[in-house]
Automatic annotation (TrEMBL):
CDD domains: FliY_FliN-Y
Coiled coil: none
Provenance organism: Gottschalkia purinilytica (Clostridium purinilyticum)
Origin: domain of life: Bacteria
Major subcellular location class: membrane
Family according to the record: Belongs to the FliN/MopA/SpaO family.
An example Gene Ontology biological process: chemotaxis
EC number(s) from the headed UniProt entry: 3.-.-.-
InterPro entries: CheC, CheC-like_sf, FliN, FliN-like_C, FliN/MopA/SpaO, FliN_T3SS_HrcQb, SpoA-like_sf
Record NCBIfam families: fliN (TIGR02480), PRK08119.1 (NF005995)
UniProt-recorded Gene Ontology molecular function terms: cytoskeletal motor activity; hydrolase activity
Annotated protein name in UniProt: Flagellar motor switch phosphatase FliY
Compartments where found: Cell membrane
Keywords noted in UniProt: Cell membrane, Cell projection, Chemotaxis, Cilium, Flagellar rotation, Flagellum, Hydrolase, Membrane
Amino acid sequence: MNQMTDKLLNQDEIDVLLGDNSQESEEVEILSDIEKDALGEIGNISMGTAATTLFTLLGQKVTITTPRVTVTTIKELGELYNIPFVAIDVRYKMGLEGMNLLIMKIEDVKIIADLMMGGEGRDVSGDITEIDLSAIGEAMNQMVGSGCTSLSEMFGTMIDIEPPRSFEISLQDNKLDIFESEEKIVKVSFRMVVGDLIDSEMMQLIPLNFAQEMVTKLLKADGDKIESNKSEGANMNNNDNEIKNKTEYKEVSSGNMQNIAQNSEIHRKMQQETVTVKNLEFEQFENIEEPKYNESIDIIQEIPVEITVQLGRTMRKIGEILEYGPGTIIELDKVLGEPLDVFANGKFIAKGEVVVIEDNFGVRITEIVSPSKRINRK
C-alpha cells in the first residue's frame, strides 16, 4: 500500500501535467480552427501586399512569413516580453469597424526609419525619437493601406483606415487604454526579414470580437461568391440548349469526385462531337493613308483646359525636408534665364518666360513644341 501511495501524483503535479492541455482546450473553445485559418489567411494576404510596399520604401528585400494565430492576454504577453516595444494603432474607418495594434521592436523601428531617411540602417543606437515614430507611422500607413486593397477584394467591399498612431509601450506595465489586462485578444505573429538588417517577430493584436467579426464577413463574402458562381453557371447551362438536351445533370456533393469526373468526361466528349474544324483564313489589309478631316472644331472650343507653368523642380530626402523651416531656400534645377515649361492638362506644349502684368505674374510663350517632340512630364 505504501508503494502505491508513493507512486501517486499530488494535485500540483497533476496541474502541471494538464496545464498546457487545459489552456489549449480553452483556446479551442474561444477560437475554432476554422476561425484561426481564416484569420491566418487574412493576415497572410494583407502582409504579403504590405511586404511589397515596404520593399519599395526601403530598397531592401522584405520577407514576411506565414502568420501564426493564438489567443492570449496583455498580462500573458507582459510575462513573455520584458523589453519595450513600439505600437502602431491602426483603426478601420470603412468596410470594417474595429482596430488592431501592430507591435514591433524598437531596434527594428529605428532601422526602418533610418532606411526611409536615406541611411544604411546600421547605426541605430540611442533612444527612439519622434522622427522615428513619425517615420514608422508613415511606413505602416502605406503598408496597411496597400493591404486594405487586397482585403477589399477578399471581403468584396471597400476597406480603408485612419492614419496610424505610433507610440512606445511596455507590455509588462499593462497600461494600455485599448485592452484590459485580462481581456482575451488574438495575437497574429509574423517573422519579418529585411535584407540582412532585421530578422525578428512582429505581432498583430486584435480584439477578439473584431477578429470574429472579420471571420464572419469573410465567410459571408466567400458564400456570396459561391452563390454568384453557381448562378452564372446555371445561366450558361440554360443558354447552351444543345448540351442540355443531350446531358442529364445530377446534383452531386463535394465529396463525390467520381460522379464529377464522369460528368466532365461526358461533357468533353459532347464538345468533341459538336466541334467544327476549318482552315484559318487571314484577312488582307492594305496600306491606307490616314484620312484628314477639315471639319470645324467649334464644338469643342468651350472645353476648359488647365494650363500649368513649371518654374522648376528638385528632389530631397525626408531627413532634409524635416529640417526645413521659415527662411529655408530650396534650389531648383532651372538655371537663371532658362525658359519655363508650359503644360496643357499635363501635356508639355510650349516654353516661355516670366513677365509681370500689373500686379500679376504671366508667361510669354517663346516656343511651341512640335507635336512629334511632345512628351508627358510630371
